[in-house]
Amino acid sequence: MSEAFVQPRRLREGDLIRIVAPSGPFDREDFERGLAVLETRYRLEFDESIFEREGYLAGDDERRAEEFLAALRDPEVKAILAARGGYGAMRIMRALPYALIRTSEKLFIGSSDLTALHARFHRAGLKTIHGPMLTRIGDLGEAHAEPLIEMMEGGGRGLRYLGERPADATPDRAEGRLFGGNLTLIAALIGTGELPDLRGAILALEEVNERPYRVDRLLAQLSLAGIFDELSGVVFGEFLGAGPGPDGMTVDEVLDDLLLRHPLPSLRGLPFGHGETNLPLPLGARARIDGDALEILDDVVR
After folding, report:
1. What is the CB neighbour count within 10 angstroms for residue 137?
2. Spatial separation of the C-alpha atoms in residues 193 and 221, rounded to whole Å
3. Do the Cβ atoms of 77 and 17 come closer than 8 Å?
4. Which residues have a Cβ under 8 Å from the Cβ of 83 and sit 6 or more positions away?
5. Residue 220 contacts by C-beta under 8 Å, 6 or more apart in sequence?
6. In whole angstroms, what is the distance from residue 27 CA to residue 138 CA?
7. Cβ neighbours of residue 1 under 8 Å, at least 6 residues apart?
8. Hey, what domains does the chain have and what are their CATH numbers?
9. Among residues 81, 84, 68, which one has the least CA distance to residue 24?
10. Of 118, 146, 190, 225, which has the fewest CB atoms closer than 10 Å, so is most exposed?
11. What is the DSSP letter of 292?
12. How far apart are the first and last CA of the chain?
């Protein structure tokens, strides 16, 4: 991954955050509750068109792309926060020019389907935050927002995320730039030219509602594409709703098998994903796997 990463400016109390919906529609009550949590510290703005629905999308592609472009172009906006994931971000990726993303220097926050836009920002050379979105903050409350606020304003250097080392004797130490997000989205970007250069990176992966054999298939796709041959390490978050099927195979067994074939430094069970704990990850920051911890070595903002 490029060393020439831009750090957006750190947020301060009273800064302007633009709320966007690049993917699916969302629950209005969770949206309002999320606004109430963050409005105690920041100014929040959104366009009324954000409530449009077109099937499984939050309005058509033009609406969603123009909303994001407006946020990038507005000099007062310091950060862009997604309302929700779902599906649809890939459909507008190429409407967001790399040059505009880079020169805007906006801090982008999202997860799940927004993994696609993290990839776009990273190819443009900007650090981002994989973290909770507005409706999830509304659903889970202020405590879910506090770690995100700390990272947006503090940067993230020195944070440690505890996980579990695999039982086999894989190496226990690695260092590289952190990238990642949803496994399905990363697999979907293979072959599109939109996946960032992952040579030497630590890749963070999470998934939701995929049975172990489907997780295996997604990991096999990454393996066949040579992704695991390029990485310095891999860390796994939650695999929520991934209970075994009639065959009895578990996600942990799938991950064990992957690491036998690709003996990378790794951790599993890190507190990020689709569950009730989605701690922010500073994507693009340098990180280190050391024993049972993922350590953040530099800030996501300046």
Report:
1. 26
2. 16
3. yes
4. 19, 20, 21, 26, 31, 34, 46, 50, 58, 133, 134, 135
5. none
6. 10
7. 122, 176, 177, 179, 196, 197, 198, 199, 200, 201, 284
8. 16-154 (3.40.50.10740), 160-296 (3.50.30.60)
9. 84
10. 146
11. T
12. 19
DSSP code for 10: P
Active centre residues (catalytic): 112, 206, 274
DSSP E strands in 30-170: the ranges are 43-45, 77-82, 107-110, 128-130, 160-162
Query: Cβ distance 2 to 8 under 8 Å?
Result: no
pLDDT in tens, 227-273: 999 999 999 999 999 999 899 999 999 999 999 999 999 999 999 99
Contact 73, 101 (CB under 8 A): no
Q: Give the separation between CA 146 and CA 221, rounded to whole angstroms.
A: 36
Q: What's the predicted TM-score (pTM) here?
A: 0.97
For the segment 73-109, what is each residue's pLDDT rounded down to a tens digit? 999 999 999 999 999 999 999 999 999 999 999 999 9
Residue pointed to by tokens 């260092």: 175
What are the b/e assignments for 195-207, b being 16+ CB within 10 Å? bbebeebbbbbbb
Confidence check: pLDDT of 46 > 80: yes
3-class DSSP state for residue 195?
coil
d(CA 190, CA 119): 11
CB contact burial 34-46 (16+ within 10 A = b; e otherwise): bbebbeebbebeb
183: burial class by Cβ within 10 Å (0-12, 13-18, 19+)? buried
